[in-house]
């Protein structure tokens, strides 16, 4: 389609059919600038086409984003992957937080290594139906710092998408670093030809976090990434003794609920602070499967995962007691 924004275009691309094509300020430095200015349009990015072919057996792709670090984005991403895997579907989780990979620990596979085969890299299996890939598996030492510039990060993300033998997946969860950095630009361009189901944006209730969520929403809209919605993490702490709830991060501006109304994006629910959830992540386990029926985060997390699957597939997940789940209406 001639008016489609090319996958390797700069952020803010006006489109090859625009009268400003090749002339707008966003066109500066774009590899397609001369072609667009001449009226010939842009060619599809070969890398994005390779990614499209490689991920053709992946039914649903979900990005997990956050505007600020420390809001529990990787906690949410890991537990969504664990929760989906409990429904006996095939799940993969890709950690593209190159400088701060946490998925190996959160998925309980930090001592594993990836292996190269004839069909590409083999991801590490956290369960029979749950595959994990992260730069964390490639470090000589767990505490080694990854000090890479943008092009090298982009190259590795491209390899993750083109050289990993994911096989047939029902869901691929991509855990991105906070903010809108090189990794985000790379993943947006490389997945341009793939039908991304959307992004889940994680925040905490306080305004200092919500300010950056607004920027993340703007980034998604500029790069044409659909937004599934925003989930509010660490939304209050329920005392196990008295039952009273304390807002550790006061929602002085109305929290995620009010922000979603202002930004016209779906609100996906809240997940309160729960020590059992944090413990599950530390031990690399599934919070819902390990059993904590009275925990304050159990039902909110179940509802959140059910909401995502309903948005993506049209069919939600019905959870019973911890460890029990099934596809349902």
TrEMBL record:
It comes from Lotharella globosa. GO terms for cellular component: cytosol. InterPro entries: Mrp-like_CS (IPR000808), Mrp/NBP35_ATP-bd (IPR019591), NUBP1/Nbp35 (IPR028601), P-loop_NTPase (IPR027417), YlxH/NBP35 (IPR033756). This is Cytosolic Fe-S cluster assembly factor NUBP1 homolog. Gene3D superfamilies: P-loop containing nucleotide triphosphate hydrolases. Keywords: 4Fe-4S, ATP-binding, Cytoplasm, Iron, Iron-sulfur, Metal-binding, Nucleotide-binding. Pfam families: ParA. GO terms for molecular function: 4 iron, 4 sulfur cluster binding; ATP binding; ATP-dependent FeS chaperone activity; metal ion binding. It comes from the Eukaryota. Transmembrane segments: none annotated. One of its GO terms (biological process) is iron-sulfur cluster assembly.
